């Protein structure tokens, strides 16, 4: 019984960090999967897993709203658009599509990445910040909404202008130049890309433009 | 006349299956959530207490897990029978008494079928796809359970302050499963189905979310329990009728029709006209800054605002149903699995238990979008008859009779009357919406993919934005749910 | 032909075997660090004064990290599966570097790891869409930082979460425009290879 109580108190104090390490053990290999998997479409799906685990981190940090926004916008919206773009630009579904960079470049990149990580790691110290031990209100959606519409309303408006510009720009960029083809009335619905399995080009463009 | 007999058969079938489904869920919940903890409480030890708490906490997820498979069987059966009636056929009527067990037999068949992974497919993704498609619907249903059970303590723990947003996030995940399955099948029809599904889901999610955001704006909350609670008190308070714009009218009618002096005193000391004035004319005057003499103008503006609110929420309901139909790939938006063009799209290559999971998830999603509609627009577990009308029609006498009949069951905590009645209303509402979806399936032809995109982007999204803006302005002139 | 395939398969199996051996070794190192055995060993071997004289505060952590990296490079040179070794080594060193830290530092370190992975992927990969995916990964690492600060430094006003919302917005716009550019390049050149986007080179 005593052991049971001890276990219970241990779990209560440490459940957050245990969850953190579980999620970290999931997300780091998945992130490697994104950049190293031979089948590029699979790495697109792995990216969804990475974003899902980051959503888990946000839940641990008690940012419910952001976690759910992360799930809706990143894990489903953006990544699906990326996957569709992968399918459009890789019409024959090759497993090993492109060779990666030369070994020398790889080694250089690895050194740079490790150096960057060590620099960041050695420079972050808890003494650098005034840590606050106040508990975070779990229902902080209201705080966020109030801040977005009062103090941060100008950046908010700029963000919407940016999204509109990106929407229009993406539509313009992705739109196929339509050469006039006499005698082919249903050109509008035909496959625009030269890839054999590219699917309909029209529907996929617009989600890209939606900027979700 | 022959049709009438068929409809009667459909009704009997529905009620029988409801008894099976909800009886099973009820008994499971009772055993795990009430009976076992009560038995354990007689032992005085930490272990027993812990176990009891764990059992209570597990009740919501257990009820969902018991509910989903049986419900999917029932929904497949009712869909086939109802479609048969619409197209003047007989439908499945051989297995069991009058075909009641047709889908149970189908389920057994699917479970024993060989599970094939096609040649050249990505086996891991192929297996993961049905799970990704199915798992979110279990989690998505959780906050809804808290909203429809009328503050039953067992189901309160699954409530979240960001409830509706959580449900939306969970219900947006299944499309990943469809794209994954479509790609992993190594089949071009599946791939096209998956791509179509992704494009469709992403486009139609915008009107769906915007229509629900409109309702959240009227309710001033994201919490589904609170949204359901605000709508209590009859059909005039439901969100589909203006999101609380008719509350003043409801209060005035209650004053006018309540005949007992006690209830009059309980409501307020004002006359019906004063109630109307305080809830419609005064907010308008305050919003516009009108002087005391301009009541007639304020009245006109208030009436217009109320009508606009009712129209806007009604359109929002339509937008929600359209977007939801597209989101879960129902006819007329079932392009991802169009049998005649894509040989059933993303699940062409699936068989056996994986196909069964896809099938299960599809019908579960239909049920979940219907229950979101019931909670957000149709008042959750609220009785549509307002209390003043119910009292006039003899509601209290009926309630006391029912309470007396159920009294022995209430004593052993098998029945909790508020939860029971809320559940009955929710079941009626949700299955009416499901039946409506089946009716649409029997009526409308399928869209073409370019028509689908045009309809989504050029019609639905502008319309949902207009509705949103109308509501933003109109709610200033009337007392809506916010702050109540 | 069969023999060459056999040899390739054999090499691969051997590589995976090495990688698994490396994973077990990493687990031992992390375990030794977590239980304090590594610390005791350093004290016993008389290394502690030297390390302290270099002004290294958390020398045991860094020692565990260096051990893991050295082991990893050795196994990789012996012919282990590089991708698995990299993943295992990163997870192991992440554990060693953060186990005794404040939660804020844990999150910041995790974000740094993801950021570095994203940077590496961005430099190494030649598929333009994969470069975009790596950029998304880096943006998400930044988001983790912001939300962690909101939790541990500014829990009242949660400004970090606000900034994260803006980052998500910008990331969405970036993904839309970037993918549109990639699509239009693909339409003109029929390739998404970064090395062949060199029309302006002379």
Largest sheet of chain A: none
Approximately how much helix is present in the residues of chain A? 55-70%
Whole-number radius of gyration of chain B? 25 Å
Helix and strand run of chain B: HHHHHHHHHHHHHHHHHHH
Helix/strand-derived category of chain A reads mainly alpha
User: What is the helix fraction of residues of chain B, given as a range?
Assistant: over 70%
Helical stretch tally of chain B? 19
Number of strands of chain A: 0
Instruction: Give the rounded overall mean pLDDT of chain B.
Output: 82
Number-wise, the strands of chain B total 0
Poorly predicted runs of 5 or more residues of chain A? 186-212
Instruction: Work out the largest interface and the residue count of each chain.
Output: A-C, 98 and 84 residues
Largest sheet of chain B: none
**Average pLDDT of chain A:** 76
**Structural class by helix and strand composition of chain B:** mainly alpha
SSE succession of chain A: HHHHHHH
Task: Kindly describe this structure.
The complex is a heterotrimer of chains A (212), B (484) and C (202). By secondary structure, chain A is mostly helical. Chain A has helices at 2-36, 40-60, 64-89, 103-123, 141-149, 153-174, 201-210. Chain A has seven helices and no strands. Chain B has 484 residues and is an all-alpha fold. Helices cover 73% and strands 0% of the residues of chain B. Chain B is globular. Chain C is built from eight helices and no strands. Chain C has helices at residues 2-35, 37-45, 48-53, 59-78, 82-98, 103-124, 128-152, 159-189. In chain C, helix 5 (82-98) packs antiparallel against helix 6 (103-124) and helix 7 (128-152) runs antiparallel to helix 8. The mean pLDDT of chain C is 81. The chains are: A mainly alpha (212), B mainly alpha (484), C mainly alpha (202). Chains in contact: A-B, A-C. Chains A and C meet through helix 1, helix 2, helix 3, helix 4 and helix 5 of A and helix 5, helix 6, helix 7 and helix 8 of C.
């Amino acid at each position: 019984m005593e052991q049971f109580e001890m276990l219970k108190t241990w779990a209560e104090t440490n459940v957050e960090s245990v969850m953190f390490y579980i999620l970290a053990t999931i997300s780091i290999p998945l992130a490697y999967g994104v950049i190293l998997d031979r089948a590029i479409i699979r790495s697109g799906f792995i990216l969804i897993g990475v974003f899902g685990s980051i959503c888990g981190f946000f839940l641990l940090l008690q940012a419910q709203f952001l976690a759910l926004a992360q799930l809706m916008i990143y894990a489903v919206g953006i990544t699906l658009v990326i996957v569709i773009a992968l399918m459009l630009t890789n019409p024959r579904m090759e497993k090993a599509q492109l060779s990666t960079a030369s070994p020398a470049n790889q080694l250089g990149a690895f050194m740079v990445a490790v150096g960057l990580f060590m620099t960041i790691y050695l420079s972050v110290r808890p003494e650098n910040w005034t840590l606050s031990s106040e508990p975070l209100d779990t229902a902080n959606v209201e705080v966020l909404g109030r801040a977005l519409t009062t103090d941060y309303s100008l950046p908010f408006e700029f963000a919407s202008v940016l999204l509109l510009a990106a929407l229009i720009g993406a539509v313009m960029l992705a739109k196929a130049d339509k050469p006039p083809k006499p005698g082919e009335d249903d050109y509008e619905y035909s496959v625009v890309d030269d890839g054999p399995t590219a699917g309909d080009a029209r529907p996929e463009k617009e989600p890209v433009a939606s900027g979700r | 006349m022959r049709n009438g007999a068929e409809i009667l058969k459909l009704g009997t079938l529905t009620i029988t299956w409801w008894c099976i489904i909800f009886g099973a869920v009820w008994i499971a919940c009772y055993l795990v959530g009430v009976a076992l903890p009560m038995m354990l409480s007689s032992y005085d030890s930490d272990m027993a207490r812990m176990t009891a708490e764990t059992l209570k906490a597990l009740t919501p997820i257990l009820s969902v897990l018991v509910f989903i498979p049986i419900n999917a069987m029932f929904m497949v059966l009712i869909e086939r029978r109802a479609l048969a009636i619409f197209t003047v056929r007989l439908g499945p009527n051989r297995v069991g008494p009058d075909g009641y067990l047709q889908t149970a037999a189908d389920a057994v068949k699917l479970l024993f079928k060989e599970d094939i992974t096609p040649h050249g497919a990505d086996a891991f993704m192929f297996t993961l796809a049905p799970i990704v498609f199915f798992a979110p619907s279990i989690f998505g249903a959780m906050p809804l359970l808290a909203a429809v059970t009328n503050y039953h303590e067992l189901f309160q723990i699954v409530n979240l302050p960001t409830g509706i947003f959580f449900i939306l996030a969970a219900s947006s995940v299944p499309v990943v499963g469809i794209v994954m399955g479509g790609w992993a099948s190594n089949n071009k029809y599946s791939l096209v189905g998956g791509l179509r599904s992704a494009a469709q889901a992403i486009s139609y999610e915008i009107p769906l979310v915007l229509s629900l955001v409109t309702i959240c704006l009227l309710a001033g909350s994201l919490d589904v329990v609170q949204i359901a609670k605000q709508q209590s008190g009859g059909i005039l308070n439901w969100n589909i009728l203006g999101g609380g714009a008719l509350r003043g009218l409801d209060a005035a009618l209650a004053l006018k029709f309540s005949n007992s002096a006690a209830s009059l005193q309980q409501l307020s000391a004002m006359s019906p006209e004063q109630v109307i004035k305080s809830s419609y004319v005064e907010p308008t005057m305050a919003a516009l800054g009108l002087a005391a003499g301009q009541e007639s103008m304020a009245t006109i503006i208030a009436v217009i605002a109320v009508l606009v609110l009712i129209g806007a929420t009604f359109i929002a309901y339509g937008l929600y149903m359209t977007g939801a139909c597209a989101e879960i790939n129902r006819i007329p938006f079932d392009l991802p699995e169009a049998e005649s063009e894509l040989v059933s799209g993303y699940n062409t290559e699936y068989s056996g238990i994986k196909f069964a999971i896809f099938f299960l998830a599809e019908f579960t999603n239909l049920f979940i979008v219907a229950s979101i509609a019931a909670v957000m627009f149709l008042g959750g577990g609220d009785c549509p008859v307002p209390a003043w009308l119910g009292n006039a029609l003899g509601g209290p006498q009926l309630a006391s009779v029912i309470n007396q009949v159920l009294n022995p069951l209430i004593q052993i905590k098998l029945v909790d009357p508020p939860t029971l009645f809320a559940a009955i209303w929710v079941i009626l509402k949700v299955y009416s919406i499901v039946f409506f979806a089946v009716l649409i399936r029997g009526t409308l032809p399928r869209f073409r993919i370019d028509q689908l995109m045009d309809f989504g982007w050029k019609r639905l999204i502008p319309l949902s934005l207009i509705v949103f803006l109308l509501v933003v302005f109109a709610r200033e002139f009337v007392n809506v749910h916010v702050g109540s | 032909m069969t023999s060459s395939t056999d040899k390739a398969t054999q090499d691969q199996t051997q590589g995976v075997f090495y990688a698994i051996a490396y994973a077990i070794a990493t687990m031992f190192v992390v375990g030794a660090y977590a239980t304090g055995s590594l610390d005791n060993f350093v004290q016993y071997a008389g290394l502690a004064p030297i390390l302290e004289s270099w002004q290294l505060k958390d020398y045991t952590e860094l020692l565990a990290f260096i051990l893991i990296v050295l082991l990893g490079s050795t196994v990789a040179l012996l012919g282990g599966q590089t991708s698995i070794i990299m993943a295992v080594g990163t997870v192991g060193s992440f554990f060693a570097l953060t186990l005794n830290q404040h939660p804020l530092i844990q999150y910041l370190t995790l974000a740094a790891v993801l950021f570095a992975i994203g940077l590496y992927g961005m430099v190494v990969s030649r598929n333009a869409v994969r470069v975009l995916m790596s950029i998304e990964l880096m943006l998400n690492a930044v988001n983790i930082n912001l939300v962690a600060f909101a939790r541990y430094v500014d829990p009242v006003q949660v400004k970090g979460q606000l900034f994260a919302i803006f980052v998500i917005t910008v990331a969405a716009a970036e993904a839309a425009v970037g993918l549109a550019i990639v699509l239009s390049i693909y339409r003109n050149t029929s390739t998404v290879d970064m090395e062949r986007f060199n029309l302006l080179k002379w």
